[in-house]
Every structure is written in C-alpha cells, then in structure tokens.
Amino acid sequence: MKSKLSLFTLFAILCINSISAQTKIIKTDAEWKKILSPAEYQVLRKAGTERAFSGKYDHFYEKGTYYCAACGTPLFSSKNKFDSGSGWPSFDNHIGNNVGFNEDHRFGDTITEIICNICDGHLGHMFMDGPKKTTGKRYCVNSLALKFKKSQ
C-alpha cells in the first residue's frame, strides 16, 4: 500500500508540473512589443509604474473580472476590489494561483512585487495595509496591467 501511494503521489506531481509547464507563456521582447502598447510594455515587461490616479481602473467599480493585459489570465475579481485611496486599483485577494510574488529591492526597502504567474508580467506590489476584516493585504495594481470583463 505504501509503494502504491508513493507512486500515485509521484505521478500526481509529474502531471501537475507538466500542466504548469504547458501553460507558461514565454515570448521575446519583440513579440511582447507587437502585442502590447508602449505604456503596457513599460509596466508589464519592464516593471514600470503608472502615475497615481491616472489609471482607468482606479475609481472603477463594475462587477466582473480583471485579467492580465499581456496574456489574458484571470487575476482579480471585482468582489475583492476596494478604494485604498492610493491612486491605483487595489484588491484584498487574487484568483487561484494566478498571481506570483517576488522580492523587490529597487526602492531601498524590500517590498513584494506581484506578477502574473502565467507570463511573468509585472502587475504592481502587495502591501500589508489592506482591509483587516478580510486578508489585511493590498494588491496595488497598475491599470495598464489589467483588462476588465464585465459579469453577465
């Protein structure tokens, strides 16, 4: 019984890893430049940041889902959006395992960069000053990194 369980576990891990490898989107800079606007490219591929209060989703509260502007992966639900007053769209949670995390040392302190787990596009940063009644997290996202689809 023990060896069957171990073989099953190994098989499951291999299947999950092969599925993950198949869904990862890798493109050259030239390919990204063809499908993204210059501003989207600067944010998503070069970890840029749009000016505060300039993004179209900052004060946008329709019901639906926010997708990665580069690859179309669902990232955030409008149910998790809140007004942080920061000037960027803010969410207290993300969808599934579609958002990844990296340490970012560019600004002197270590902060948490958030990326799309499918295409590695830069989305913004996560801070621990979000709503305490939910997760306490604030996913501070560039509007240029998002595309919105309204719920039916």
UniProtKB/TrEMBL annotation:
Top-rank EC class of the record's enzyme: oxidoreductase
Gene Ontology MF, one: peptide-methionine (R)-S-oxide reductase activity
InterPro entries recorded: Met_Sox_Rdtase_MsrB (IPR028427), Met_Sox_Rdtase_MsrB_dom (IPR002579), Mss4-like_sf (IPR011057)
Top-level lineage group: Bacteria
Signal peptide boundaries: 1-21
Domain MsrB, residue spans: 29-151
Pfam families per record: SelR
The keyword Transport is annotated on this UniProt entry: no
EC id: 1.8.4.12
Protein keywords: Oxidoreductase, Signal
Catalytic activity line of the entry: L-methionyl-[protein] + [thioredoxin]-disulfide + H2O = L-methionyl-(R)-S-oxide-[protein] + [thioredoxin]-dithiol
Keyword Magnesium part of the UniProt annotation: no
NCBIfam families, alphabetized: peptide-methionine (R)-S-oxide reductase MsrB (TIGR00357)
Protein name according to UniProt: peptide-methionine (R)-S-oxide reductase
Organism per entry: Wenyingzhuangia gilva
Gene (UniProt): msrB
